[in-house]
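Reviewers of the previous submission asked for a worked example of the structure-prediction workflow described in the proposal, so we include one complete record here. The input consisted solely of the amino acid sequence. No template or homolog information was supplied to the procedure at any stage.
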Amino acid sequence: MADTGLVKNNYKSNQAIKSLLEKCGIKKDKDVEELYLSNQDLSEVVDLTRFKFLKILWLNANKLRSINCLTNNFLLKELHLENNQLTTICGKLRHLTCLQVLMLHNNQLTKLERVAKEFNKMQTLHTLNLFDNPVSQEPGYRLLLIHTVPSLKLLDRQEVGKTETDQARRVYDQEQEKIRETIAFGRRSEGPPELYYPPGLERSRTIDIESKNIGNSYLRDNPPYDSTEEAVNARRLKKSVTVFTTFDWSKIPRYEERRQMDKPFDSPEIITHVYR
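From that input alone, the workflow returned the following structure tokens.
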């Protein structure tokens, strides 16, 4: 009986596809980029592998409990599965890495972590709807999806803002967050270790210009100088040397002059400038 029902449902979806293609005047499968199969009372859909260039598919408002028809439709960009009776999508959608829009609201999806894992390779997915599913009531639902799919811009018809993105990172990526907080510009840096005075200790040594003991630096091992000029010159000499080389084209004859000259002309002179 189950096989008979499957054959009947496949026949029904085949007829719906055939009718649609005839209506649109499409004769070749390779020319099909969109399929509109909404409101067809379908509980199963025939495999759509033959439509290799399919990009948009509407299967919403049917009676689908599972989705097994998209095995090789790797170019899908937009998929509408809302208003069905889906109980699971595990292993059914993860290969659709080109998806940009995915509508799954008003189904019966549960188990948040399994659902989220289905999306972790969809790097171009920017719009996702999962509201009106049991899974959307689970704790941490929104933050987990934002963390799993960094490309999301719209989740359940609400914009994904920077505040939520940062919060999701702090919750689900704590090790990386600790590293970010220790680098420069993540927080105020105390400088390279063991070079500057330890934080918390008052710097008793202050630069006194009148005493002519000028160090021109915070470094502990920096030698004092007798004058500001010596300190500046010492620091200048530690800078890297920049060499800039050019050709002196002013002594090279122009095109018309070269044509009229009887003797060969010299190569251009190389001029080198050294900067600190």
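The helical segments are 2-24, 112-117, 141-148, 162-172, 174-182, 228-237, 255-260. We consider this example representative of the routine output the project will generate in years two and three.
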